[in-house]
User: Fold these one by one.
Assistant:
Number 1:
Amino acid sequence: MNKLPLPTRIFIVCIAAVTIAALAAFGDQTTLRFASRIAIMGLAAVAVDVVLGYAGLVSLGHAAFFGVGAYVTGALALAGHTEGLIVWPIAIGAATLAALVIGALALRTTGVYFIMITLAFAQMFYYSANAVPGLGGADGFRLPSRSTIGGIPLDNPRIFFLLCAFVLIAVLLFARRASFSAFGYTLQAARDDAIRSAASGIENYWLRLAAFTISGAIAGLAGVLSANLTLYIAPSSVLSWHLSAELLVMVILGMAGTLYGAVIGAAIFLALVEIISHYTDFWAMYVGIAVIARVLLIRDGLLVTLRRLVTA
Amino acid sequence: MSIAFLAEQSFNALQLGLMLFLMAVGVTLAFGTMRLINLAHGSFFMLAAYFYAWIIAETENGIVAWIGALAGLAVLAVVIERVIIRPLYLRDHLEQVLATFGLILVFNDFVMMIWGRDPVYVPLPDALSGHIMMGDIAYPTYRLVITAVAIISGLSIWYLIARTRTGGLIRASADNRPVVQALGANVDRLSAGVFALVAVLAGIAGIMTAPLIAVTSGMGDSVLIQSLVVVIIGGLGSIVGALVGALLVAFVEVFGRTYLPLALGSTSGFALANMAIYLLMAVTLIWRPFGMFGKPR
């Protein structure tokens, strides 16, 4: 993906910085909560974009990693462990492990098989969470409290929002740096022409597995933050395959393969849902119509059209 | 554990397997002929059940409800194919996934808008509500009848695909669509026909399952996932694979739910039973990444 011109990039960064600062300074509780949600879902969408945009793989199973992150955080909180510096690495580690195992199996295939296998394994986590005793089954459970970071509580919505924004930016910078590294370039080579990259000595399988595992870790981190935001976890909210599909929709609403496009897509999607659900209970129907229209009518996506105007 | 109980469980598994086959064969045919991944396949299962419940409540005539539900579903499928699915045949799988996911959202909310959020219960037909004695087991007549219907549907499909000219064209366009088109066959009409056919098969499964479970919005989702597991195990595009995969998944599912809790204690047994078909899928993937009867694509 070619870079935007420098002035435009500086402009975008300034707007993002001003938005975050303004929200942190003036946002009320509801606004901060919604902004935190955008940051968290944006983070999960970035995880999907790492796999979709850079490795060229359609994963319909990222809810599994999001859900594992959330469930481990929740289960440890129930057991009385809330120190984030200990709990969060464990939760992210569990999500990473899940991604490593699912990826190792699913990456033996490509195309439609990959889509269906990631979906099926994510459903395995969904049904298991329904059956695990002590965690509320299908009804889910409440977390007793938010995590603390080094003993500092995260109950203040302003601090929590700033933490989410900080994590999102750190991950964006890390992923962007990685995309311009040797790892990122070989990964994109394997996406563009698997046969040629293999002939050049690139190990497509291990490369993709590395990307998939990193992506799973990022999704797990998003799940950890989500559990702390909502303080309520149920299979239908954090492990549903609808979540996996919605993450793909977010990436596509922005632009795949740009990372920041995933965050913008998440913001558009969540704002759309928020607005429509003010008017009707059947918001999912209108979201469905919007998704179909996006696929059939605006083939390139919103940001590509916008970007073409800027770069022209 | 008596032999009678074992036989009854085997029969339940056979029946679930045939039901899954009716779903999975649709997934496999849609991919085989049109390179289409259709997540909205489970919606046809659900819509047929709702149509059937609605018509039977209005007319109290089972046969009218069967015909009406399936005809309505076929018309709907043709319209959806023409408007939404056909432009997607040549696009990448991601766009097919997104558009058919959009369809699921629309249909799940649509049925709630029309028929409400509460589950709809479909009565068993009076003539079929009794039991039939098979040896010393009393087996529900209804389950026996739907097993027969599923077998007949399966055989008809096999005959259509393997023995008729239309079936030949379907198989040929699965292998090489442009050539079939160049030879003068109307592949657009063929695709529309196949899409309507697989919708009707999913509909048959939906209608037959309706009296056994509550008809709810989203009831197609779990069936869709199970039939995807079947197709992954059997191999995408293979009809034999769909049959073998469906029976395997059904037997593992039914016997897992019966025996694992007995063998391992109720909690871990129940948890493992939930995971059993996915573990079967994982093992198949290690052994043959593209399914038992599938070809690498």
Number 2:
Amino acid sequence: MTGARSDILLAVQAALQSPPLLEARNLERRFGAARALRGLSLSVQAGECHLIVGPNGAGKTTLLRLLAGLARPTAGTVVIEGGRRRIGLLSHQSQLYNELTAVENLAFAARLHGVADPARAARTCLTAVGLAERADDPVGKLSRGMVQRVAIAKALLHAPRLLLLDEPFTGLDLQATEQTLALLGAERAAGRALVLVTHDAQEAWDLATHAHLLVRGVWAFGGPREASLEHFLRRCREALRG
Amino acid sequence: MAEFLRVALAVAGKDVRVELRSKTALVSAIAFAALVLVIFNFARDAAAVSREMLAPSVLWITFSFSGVIALNRSFSLERENAALDGLLLAPVSRSALFLGKYLANLAFVFSVETVALPLFVLFFGVDLSGSLGGIILTAILATTGFVAVGTVFAAMTARTRFAELMLPLLVLPFLLPPVISAVQVTARLLAGRPLSEIAGWLRILGFYDLVFVTLCLLLFPPLMDE
């Protein structure tokens, strides 16, 4: 056995032995009589990136809110290893205050998360997303893409082990998308787990280790990522037609 | 405890900073207070009702209604961009979040009252020389309680579609005990009555503060869980 193979085997063995960072079982969420999610289970290990795709209204954002603990499931359980302090969430909305500057927003979040030297941590994260020069501008005066990058920096600020990302590439130009992909790739390589919700599988395909299709609140299919994006998209089209 | 206070001060500091930049709540609440005083001043029939009789009620209507306007802003700023989600995701005590919002709201409402009191003196020609200390104490006691209740209701209504409408409807009934007590104290202070006549009302205000600030601290965390 070569050294590289044994390293991979050891990593797989370690992953199998360690508890998952996220374990969701039989999640159900109702809004009145309507069932938004039904019987969803998901297990996410360190270093994995789960891509969740689905059409509008499939329940992707609702699922992410349940996983983050911002909404309660009607039935089922969500267990986060280490508790909610290990989560970084990027949601549809930026969770930022328009009147505060980018660095003030991040420093405030850092204080709440108990990060040492909040102002410094805030500037470091803004530099990582390429916004060092706009750090002292009010968020309300930044473009949509820049606000998205500040929001991404906020999600990464406290070095969470599990990142929940809802459409992270919305509003980003090509350069910023590539920069964000590289940043998220580095996070995954560092052992963080990612759950990435998008309506466009193509943009995050290379990052994903697993891919799932959510349709009308249930998994149409899902599991370890297939080799070919085209094959995955074909299966998606078939599932949506069915 | 130090961590609890650190979080509360961070939240309060953030709210004050946002308000100082936008001035949304302060300007609208102060303008509202001035309008109420102007309306009452000119709507009063001088032959039928003396200024002294009307003044205590007008003062407390002005304080409480403009206070509700200031409170409305408290959680509406958390609704913009879903910033409330960011607060709730943070691994901090929700009672500390409440305390932070409460301290900021106290600062806003006291600021509005600080501007409204001289306007009240100006419009109603009331002589506060012998009663200023007592009125300030009454304002502190009454405001402490009703801002706590208002902060909780502002949080509850923040996630509803009609927050601006719902907040006054929910809060105003809870303002009756402190407003009635404060009006009674103010009337007696302006009439130069002895301390023994107001001590009972001040005790009611103190009791209201104790009960409602404690209740709000306890109720806020479960109310924030969806």
